[in-house]
Design goal:
Blueprint lengths: L10 E4 L1 H4 L10 H6 L1 H7 L3 E4 L3 E2 L11 E5 L6 H13 L3 E6 L9 H6 L13 E2 L19 E4 L4 E4 L14 H17 L3 E4 L26 H4 L5 H11 L7 E5 L5 H7 L9 E3 L21 H15 L6 E2 L9 H4 L6 H16 L4 E5 L20 H12 L5 H11 L36 H6 L4 H14 L1 H5 L1 E5 L6 E8 L2 E8 L5 E4 L11 E2 L9 E4 L4 E5 L1
Parallel strand pairs: 1-2, 1-13, 2-5, 5-9, 9-10, 10-11, 12-13
Antiparallel strand pairs: 3-4, 6-8, 7-8, 14-15, 15-16, 16-20, 17-19, 18-20
Helix pairs in contact: 9-10, 12-16, 13-14
This protein binds 1-O-alpha-D-glucopyranosyl-D-fructose and calcium ion.
Length: about 550
C-alpha cells in the first residue's frame, strides 16, 4: 500500500453557517472560523473541510451556488477567506473546500442565460428536454420531492434538477461546462486550497436516453438512481479532471458518492491516483432507512452495521482508500442515532465507544463539528423550528399525500432531519452557546449549558479529550492508518470488535455498542496488557472478560 499524507490525516468538517458568528447577525461566518482555528489545532486534526461559503441564494444553505468565485456576503469577503487560509496554514492545518458542480443555483448567470432561448450559447450548459404527453420528460423524482423536471415557460422545455427546483443540473456532456469547472478549480488551487470535497460527484454523468424508472408502490415518481448514479461517463470525466487539474497539485480529493459500491469505489479512489484520493459511501447511513426513504424511527441493526462496514474494510484494502464517518451536515447526530443520549454518563460513554469503533478502522476519519463534544440531535418542537429544504418539502409531500400523519412525520423530522446536525456549535455557557450575540438562524440546543467545548477542553475524561487522544494515536501508530482489518465475532449482537495488523504489530479494538453487559473471549496475547485507550478508567484486559454497557477499548501488541 502506498503512503500518502491524506491517508494519515484526520479531517474536521466545518459547516460555516453554524460554527461561529463574528458579527451578531446570527449566521456563522469565515472570520468566526478563523477565530476558532486554535481550537481545531489543539484538537489535533490535520485538515479542515469547509462546507460552501460561495455566493448563493442560500435555499440549500450554500449547496446552490450562483458564483463559484465569490463569497456570500453573510459569510464574509474574499479577504476573510484568504486570512482564514493563511492562518490555518501557519498553524499547520490544511483547508479543503466544497466543490458543488453537479448543479448550480438557478440564479447562476449560466442558467439565467440558458433559460432565455433554445439557441442561447449557454443552453447546453444544462439539461433541457421536451415534455411528454403534457407532462415531464420522464417519471424521475427529485431528491427534494416532486418531479426531477421543471417546466420553464419561456422556452416551453423542462430542465433536470436532481435536487431542488432551484438547483438545475449542469450538462457534463458539454466540454465547455467541464472546462469552466476545471478553470474555476485551478483558480482556487492558485489561492492555495489543499483539496476538494466533491458534492454528489457520482451523479454528474446521466444516461443519455433518460428512460422512465420503476415506481414503488403508491409512488408517483421513480428513482433516478439507475440512470444517474455512477453513470456511463463519470470515470472518463474524473480522469479528465485529474489530468487537467488534480494531478498538478498535491490535494486531498474526496468524492461524495451516493450509490457507491465497493467495486465502484475501487475506481473512484483507485490506488494509482487516476481519479480521486477517496470517496464517501452511504450504505451504512442507509441501514436505518425504510419505505418512505429515511423518514422512520427505526434503529440500525448492529449485525448489519458490522457486516457492512467490514465489507468496505476488506473490499478496499490495498485497492482504494476509505473514508470513515458517522456524522456530517446531512445526518442526525450519531450519539442520538446509534448511541444513548438519555443520561450524561451514557451519552459520553456511548459517544466515545462509537468514536473508538470508527477511528481505529482503516481509512481517513472525518469529524463533524460538535461530534467531538458528543453533541446530540436538536431539541426541535414544532415544524417552525426546522429550516432544511429537504425536511420541509418531505413533510409537505408525505403529509399531503396521506402517506404519513403530521405528528408521526414531525417525530421523524426530530429524529432524522438534517437540521439535527446544523444547530449552533456549543462553545460555552454564554447565551446561544457562545455561537452568536444575536438571534441564531436555527435554534440552539438548550443542552449547551451541559454540553459545551469550554467545559470539555479542561476536563480530562471528556468526549473532546477522548477524540484528541484518538487523533494522536493515529498519528503515532502506523497500524491504525495502514493495518489490515479482520472482524471478530461477526454474530455477536452487542460487540463490534476487530483486529488490525501491520508490520508485526497487532491492534485489537473491542466496543460494546449496547446498553447491556456482554462477555468476550479475547484472542491470545492481549490478557494483562494495558489498554492504549479506553472509555472507562478501570478497564482490565482478561482472557474472559465482561464488557460493561458501552465499554470500549483498544490495545496494541
Ligand atoms: O448531499 C447529497 C445527498 O445525497 C443528500 O441528498 C443526502 O442523501 C441527503 O441529504 C440525506 O438525507 C449533498 C450535500 O451534502 C447536501 O447538503 C446537499 O443538499 C445536496 O448534495 C445537494 O447539493
Ligand atoms: Ca455572521
Amino acid at each position: 500500500m502506498k503512503k500518502a499524507w491524506w491517508k494519515e490525516a484526520v479531517v474536521y468538517q466545518v459547516y460555516p453557517r453554524s460554527f461561529q458568528d463574528s458579527n451578531g447577525d446570527g449566521i456563522g461566518d469565515l472570520p468566526g472560523v478563523t477565530a476558532r482555528l486554535p481550537y481545531l489545532r489543539d484538537l489535533g486534526v490535520d485538515v479542515i473541510w469547509l462546507s460552501p461559503f460561495y455566493q448563493s441564494p442560500g435555499k440549500d444553505n450554500g449547496y446552490d451556488i450562483s458564483n463559484y468565485q465569490a463569497i456570500q456576503p453573510e459569510f464574509g469577503t474574499m479577504e476573510d477567506f484568504d486570512t482564514l487560509l493563511s492562518q490555518a496554514h501557519s498553524m499547520g492545518l490544511k483547508v479543503v473546500i466544497d466543490l458543488v458542480v453537479n448543479h448550480t443555483s438557478d440564479e447562476h448567470p449560466w442558467f439565467q442565460e440558458s433559460r432565455k432561448s433554445r439557441d442561447n450559447p449557454y443552453r447546453d450548459y444544462y439539461i433541457w428536454r421536451d415534455g411528454v404527453d403534457g407532462g415531464p420528460p420522464n417519471n424521475w423524482g427529485a431528491s427534494f420531492s416532486g418531479s426531477a423536471w421543471e417546466l420553464d415557460e419561456t422556452t416551453g422545455q423542462y430542465y433536470l434538477h436532481t435536487f431542488g427546483t432551484f438547483q438545475p443540473d449542469l450538462n457534463w456532456e458539454n466540454p465547455a461546462v467541464r472546462q469552466e469547472v476545471y478553470q474555476m478549480m485551478r483558480w482556487w488551487c492558485g489561492r492555495g486550497v489543499d483539496g476538494f470535497r466533491m458534492d454528489v460527484i457520482s451523479m454528474i454523468s446521466k444516461t443519455p436516453q433518460m428512460p422512465d424508472g420503476e415506481c414503488g408502490p403508491g409512488s408517483l415518481y421513480s428513482s433516478f438512481g439507475p440512470y444517474v448514479v455512477n453513470g456511463p461517463h463519470v470515470h472518463t470525466f474524473l480522469q479528465e479532471m485529474n489530468r487537467e487539474v488534480l494531478s498538478k497539485y498535491d490535494l486531498l480529493t474526496v468524492g461524495e458518492c451516493p450509490g457507491l459500491t465497493v467495486e465502484q469505489a475501487c475506481r473512484y479512489a483507485n490506488e494509482d491516483g487516476t481519479e480521486l484520493t477517496m470517496a464517501f459511501q452511504f450504505e451504512h447511513m442507509d441501514l436505518d432507512g425504510g419505505e418512505s426513504f429515511k423518514w422512520n424511527l427505526r434503529k440500525m441493526d448492529l449485525l448489519e452495521l458490522k457486516a457492512n462496514l467490514s465489507k468496505w474494510q476488506y473490499g478496499l484494502n490495498g485497492k482504494a482508500w476509505n473514508s470513515l464517518y458517522w456524522c456530517n451536515h446531512d445526518q442526525p447526530r450519531i450519539v442520538s442515532r446509534l448511541g444513548d443520549d438519555s443520561s450524561p454518563v451514557l451519552r459520553e460513554r456511548s459517544a466515545k465507544a462509537l468514536a473508538l469503533c470508527l477511528h481505529m478502522m482503516q481509512g481517513t476519519p472525518y469529524i463533524f463539528e460538535g461530534e467531538e463534544l458528543g453533541m446530540t440531535n436538536g431539541d426541535f418542537k414544532t415544524l417552525a423550528d426546522f429550516r432544511d429544504v429537504e425536511s420541509l418539502n418531505a413533510y409537505q409531500e408525505l403529509t399531503r399525500s396521506g402517506v404519513m400523519e403530521p405528528e408521526a412525520m414531525l417525530r421523524c423530522l426530530c429524529y432524522k432531519s438534517r437540521d439535527n446536525a446544523r444547530t449552533p456549535m456549543q462553545w460555552n455557557t454564554e447565551p446561544e452557546a457562545g455561537f452568536t450575540t444575536g438571534t441564531p438562524w436555527i435554534r440552539t440546543n438548550a443542552n449547551y449549558t451541559e454540553i459545551n467545548a469550554a467545559e470539555q477542553v479542561t476536563r480530562q475524561d471528556s468526549v473532546y479529550n477522548f477524540y484528541r487522544q484518538l487523533i494522536a494515536l493515529r498519528h503515532t501508530h502506523p497500524v491504525i492508518v495502514y493495518g489490515s482489518y479482520q472482524l471478530l465475532w461477526p454474530e455477536d449482537r452487542q460487540l463490534f470488535a476487530y483486529l488490525r495488523q501491520w508490520e508485526g504489530c497487532t491492534l485489537l479494538a473491542v466496543c460494546n455498542l449496547s446498553g447491556d453487559e456482554d462477555r468476550a473471549e479475547l484472542p491470545q496475547g492481549f490478557a494483562g496488557k494495558a489498554p492504549l485507550i479506553a472509555n472507562l478508567p478501570d478497564t482490565v484486559l482478561e482472557g474472559t472478560m465482561v464488557l460493561r454497557p458501552w465499554e470500549a477499548f483498544a490495545v496494541l501488541v
